[in-house]
Amino acid sequence: MIPIGSHPVWHPVMETLAYVSGFAVYRWQRARQGDIVDEPQRWTVLAAAAVGALVGSRALGVAEHWPTVQQAWQAGRIWELLLSPGGKTIVGGLLGGWLAVELVKKLSGIKRRTGDLFALPLCVGIAVGRVGCLLAGLADDTYGKPTALPWAINLGDGIGRHPVQVYEILFLIVLGMLVGSPVKLPEGARFRIFLAGYLAWRVAIDFLKPQPLIGGMNLIQWSCVAGILLLVLDEVRLGKGMHEKAVG
Amino acid sequence: MRKRLVDRIPFAKIVIGLAAVFIVSLGSCGLSLVLNSGSARAIGATLSIGGLIGLLVSVVGLVVTCLGWAILSIVGAFGEKVSQPQKLFDEKDDTKLDKQD
User: Could you give the ipTM of this predicted complex?
Assistant: First the structure.
């Protein structure tokens, strides 16, 4: 067993580093590749993504702890719970950010697909953030199920566990190489590959996490399934639109 | 033509700025906990107070800015419709008149 222990104080530090590194990669990519939308439109998209991600990550994080929310509601401590640190989820952030951007694009008449510039930064940001989850250990809800594998980690309770955070970092390196490759892809494809890949990954990897299940999967997994379905529906809609354009 | 209020205020940049403050405050709160558990308690306490103020200001600021942005966008869109100049003559009629002249 590899001793890691639990150091929850490092989680917010790594979380901030995750945002900073993601933004640095975004700026580097934008300077290198240029942008398909003009500056004010990009600011609008960024703002929508930031607000949507903050709200989405918190909403799903709170929903994940539904019994605690119910108790807090009954005790009149709902604001305390909502404003307490922690309890944010990456999947909620991704879905919230994505939906907010789509909504704002529709309202402000932005027709281009703006997500490609976010694909690689998200891979880097999530990977850095997962280091914080690994260091936080048992204090974070992202640790793995017990295992007897030689690379099992000990988070301080003497039980060997799957290093699910390390698995995810490795997966993100592969996904990052894919979405960051210089191969020419249609507009929006890099972001969609990232989103579909990450959501599918979370459906699979969350089976290795000891979390309460609803109908065989946890809330994050169900959210990922919903996200994948939305992506498929959107692709079908876009495909239809392109077909009608070609015919008409 | 005069720009609408919603276009004159850089809401998107304000939101990004506040989100950045939120992120840095979150990090400084975390760092203060790390320092408090070690020997640099004075720095930790300063960071902790700064971080909490930053978190509070950024969250309130984000809510207020987003609400303001949404309200001004709605009002702006509504006002745009209302203040559209009334067309006294149809374009086709104008052409007819020109031809007659």
Answer: 0.72
